[in-house]
Structures are given as structure tokens and as C-alpha cells.
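Researcher: Sequence recovery benchmark, item below. Answer with residues only.
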């Protein structure tokens, strides 16, 4: 271990943290059900596919023909595409599938509490996402068993290797040595990890940000939770509409109580 930096808890997505999300449950939606494809571009096109229930497929393509096939098969699929690795191909893909492809820019903007900022007007089908905080969000959700993954260890080990290439490090002011935050750095290919980030960006808008615990109580399934990550890395659970989870729970309890009132029989 000489010469290797110490990696403390929370600074890696370990295999154990990821593997606990694996499930034999069938998460693959029907052909015409909504789902999101997250695509990281570069020399190859790494992508993941998932829906409100979780991830069900990952792959890599040499060109956009395979992705065109997926878009034809899944009639309601929305694709969130990294536009930094392939400027021309990603835009041509967007033009072929009008209204179904969104270009995503990854950056590190800590001047705002927003994780994702969606474009308006002529930039409607674009968005900007905070790279490090989005990676942190997905890692935390895997660690807390919030993202189900359909398949076996063999199916997803190569996918996890891309997550293993990412390590969270502290950022310090070189003059004052004060702690200024965290940054996720890569040591090898991290393309499928970033594809998952793009998928998660899409789920925030097109999947109501749902992230359900495996084996959670059936009642809680009526109140999907969307974690909101602040600039200081604190997390507040909210409903997809931005409502406080406690208030939403009380409202649902009151609603169910009124529905079961014996005086209404």
C-alpha cells in the first residue's frame, strides 16, 4: 500500500455499496413506457437505461446507430446526452429525434444551489448540471440503496469498474489551506458513471426524481422522495413537487383517514 493515498469512507463507491442495489426483480419497462437513456460521448458512446423503478441496462456503442435503434424501440424514451465529448454527433442525434433528446453540459457552478438548470426558449432542449454534486448525489443514492439495479454481479461488474475510477478529494485554498469543498477526480475510464449522472439528470425532470428504497414500506411509495443537495453538501428530502416530506406524509395520512371514515359509508 506504500505510495497510495488513503481513501476514507464516502470517498469511493465501493463494490459492496453498489452490489446491495442489485435485484432479480424485473425493472425493464414495456416498450411504450417512459424511460431515460443517459449517454456519455467520446471515442465510444457509453450509455445506461433506466426508469422510475431503477436501472435495467448498460452498454457501449461505436456509433449512434445503436442508440437510434433504442429510441425506435422505446417510443417514450428521453435521452440526456453529454455534449462535451462529441459536439457534432450529439447535435445530429438531437435533430433526428426532435423533442426527445436533451444536450447536457457538465460544470462545477457552486454559486447556485441548483443541481440542474434547464434551458429556456431556443435552448429549451439543453441543460447544465453540477458535475461534482451530481456524482455525489448518485453515489449517496447507491450507498443508501435508493437505486435498484436489475441483474447479477456478473452483469454489472464492468459497469461498476467505471465508478471505481472516481475518487472524492478535498479542495483546499493553497494560501490559507482552508477547506473549500470536494471534487471527484478520475484515474481511469469513468464513462458509464457519467452516463448514470446524465440518466439521473433526466429522472429529475421526466421521472419525478423518484429514488425508492429497496423493501420500503408500501405507504411510503405514495410519497416518492427527491433529495435536494445544497451547496454545502447537506441533503433535504422533498417530494417531486418540492413539498416537505413530513407535510406530504401528514396530508396523505389525513386523506386516507377521511377515505376510511365510517360516517361516509
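Model:
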Amino acid at each position: 500500500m506504500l505510495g497510495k493515498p488513503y481513501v476514507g469512507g464516502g470517498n469511493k463507491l465501493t463494490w459492496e455499496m453498489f452490489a446491495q442495489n442489485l435485484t432479480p426483480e424485473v425493472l425493464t419497462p414495456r416498450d411504450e413506457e417512459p424511460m431515460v437513456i443517459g449517454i456519455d460521448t467520446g471515442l465510444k458512446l457509453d450509455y445506461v437505461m433506466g426508469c422510475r423503478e431503477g436501472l435495467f441496462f448498460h452498454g457501449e456503442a461505436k456509433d449512434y446507430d445503436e442508440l437510434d435503434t433504442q429510441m425506435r424501440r422505446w417510443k417514450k424514451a428521453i435521452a440526456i446526452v453529454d455534449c462535451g465529448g462529441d459536439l457534432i454527433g450529439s447535435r445530429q442525434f438531437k435533430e433526428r429525434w426532435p423533442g426527445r433528446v436533451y444536450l447536457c453540459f457538465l460544470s462545477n457552478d457552486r454559486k447556485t444551489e441548483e443541481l440542474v438548470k434547464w434551458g429556456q426558449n431556443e435552448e429549451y432542449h439543453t441543460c447544465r448540471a453540477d458535475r461534482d454534486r451530481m456524482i455525489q448525489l448518485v453515489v449517496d443514492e447507491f450507498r443508501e440503496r435508493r437505486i435498484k439495479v436489475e441483474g447479477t454481479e456478473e452483469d454489472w461488474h464492468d459497469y461498476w469498474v467505471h465508478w471505481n475510477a472516481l475518487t472524492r478529494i478535498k479542495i483546499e485554498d493553497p494560501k490559507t489551506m482552508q477547506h473549500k469543498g470536494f471534487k471527484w477526480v478520475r484515474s481511469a475510464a469513468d464513462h458509464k458513471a457519467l452516463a448514470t449522472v446524465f440518466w439521473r439528470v433526466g429522472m429529475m425532470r421526466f421521472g419525478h426524481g423518484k429514488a425508492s428504497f429497496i423493501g420500503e414500506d408500501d405507504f411510503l411509495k405514495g410519497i416518492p422522495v427527491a433529495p435536494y443537495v445544497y451547496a454545502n453538501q447537506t441533503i433535504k428530502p422533498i417530494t417531486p413537487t418540492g413539498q416537505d416530506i413530513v407535510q406530504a406524509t401528514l396530508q396523505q395520512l389525513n386523506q386516507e383517514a377521511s377515505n376510511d371514515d365510517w360516517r361516509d359509508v
